[in-house]
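Need a sequence for this fold. Nothing fancy.
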């Protein structure tokens, strides 16, 4: 390998990137825009569920009960209706996700069993599950609290027996969604940007006809591949640093583990993602084919890597497919270092697999490339 020829290719690629200003702007702005967009949009927390109330009791007790739902912050009782048909219509039209039906004799709940109905729109399972569990919890807490007060007034008390469960949440005690989401977004954004950028690297040469000029030069295929790859490594790693800084200083997600290890493995993953882009670039003949190939890779990785859905819940066949996605291992690394603060020893398996994948993909991309036109 000739260093001078390699530097010549690197210089040529930088000049080409500089002249292609739209791609340059996209490579710098897109990672930040994606992190902002996804960081605020992707959330699994469900609160302030819009709720309709059919209060047939209209007593102080029923108003206290409704306030208990409002104060829980899970529900927002914003509609008060006069009949069940009106409540059903609000659920059917999607204006509310839950409906609370309070019977006329609700004020007697301290003396006898009173049936209250909480109707939930199950078309969105995530919201429905939250509404179901939190709705039951609010009703039980309200009932127990008032029962204890009533017994206390009568000089009685509930015996202190049963199970007292103490809980402790490790790593993310506040259960902050951003603490979990942002590290995942860091890997997802970097993968998408680097693959798309490099998927066009060689195809652009083919379409512009400049590949013929490179063929007649003494440049070897491996020099051409590495020379075209290095500028994108620098751009991709700059993007990684910017997105990481944004995660820490804007979204306030601290890195609990080694920042050096994170930077090192971030560089490792960028090489891996760039190799995927290069592989697509060697297979595609046009930029349209490159774009289609990139999306064929990106869409499954978003769904199967564990970014959105837990891999533990996937069928074994689907999980086996996700095992060959490099992002799967990088997400474990990111969440392990950033959230849990664990060391390289614990992540050794993921590090070895991701590095091996990167090396294999890069080798395949180089071998596939032939300094000739089809």
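Here you go.
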């Amino acid at each position: 390998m000739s260093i001078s020829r390699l530097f010549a290719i690197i210089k040529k690629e930088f000049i080409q990137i500089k002249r292609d200003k739209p791609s340059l702007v996209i490579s710098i702005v897109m990672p930040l825009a994606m992190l902002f967009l996804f960081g605020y949009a992707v959330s699994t927390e469900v609160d302030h569920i819009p709720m309709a109330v059919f209060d047939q009791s209209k007593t102080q007790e029923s108003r206290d009960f409704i306030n208990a739902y409002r104060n829980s912050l899970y529900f927002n009782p914003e509609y008060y209706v006069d009949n069940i048909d009106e409540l059903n219509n609000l659920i059917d039209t999607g204006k509310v996700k839950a409906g609370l039906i309070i019977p006329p004799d609700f004020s007697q709940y301290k003396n006898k069993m009173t049936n209250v109905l909480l109707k939930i729109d199950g078309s969105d399972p995530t919201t429905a599950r939250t509404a179901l569990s939190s709705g039951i919890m609010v009703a039980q807490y309200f009932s127990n609290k008032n029962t204890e007060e009533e017994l206390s007034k009568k000089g009685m008390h509930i015996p202190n027996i049963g199970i007292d469960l103490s809980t402790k949440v490790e790593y993310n005690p506040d259960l902050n969604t951003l603490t979990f989401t942002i590290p995942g977004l860091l890997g997802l954004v970097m993968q998408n940007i680097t693959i798309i950028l490099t998927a066009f690297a060689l195809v652009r040469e083919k379409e512009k006809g400049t590949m013929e000029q490179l063929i007649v030069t003494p440049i070897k295929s491996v020099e051409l591949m590495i020379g075209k790859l290095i500028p994108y490594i620098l751009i991709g790693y700059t993007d990684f640093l910017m997105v990481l800084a944004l995660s820490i200083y804007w979204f306030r997600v601290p890195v609990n583990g080694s920042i050096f290890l994170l930077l090192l493995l971030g560089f490792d993953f960028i090489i891996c993602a760039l190799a995927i882009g290069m592989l697509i670039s060697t297979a595609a003949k046009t930029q349209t084919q490159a774009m289609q190939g990139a999306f064929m890779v990106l869409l499954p990785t978003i769904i199967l890597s564990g970014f959105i859905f837990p891999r533990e819940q996937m069928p074994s066949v689907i999980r086996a497919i996700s095992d060959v996605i490099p992002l799967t291992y990088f997400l474990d690394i990111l969440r392990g270092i950033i959230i849990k603060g664990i060391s390289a020893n614990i992540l050794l398996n993921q590090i070895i697999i991701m590095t091996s994948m990167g090396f294999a993909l890069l080798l395949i991309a180089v071998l596939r490339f032939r300094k000739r036109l089809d």
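For context: The radius of gyration is 29 Å.
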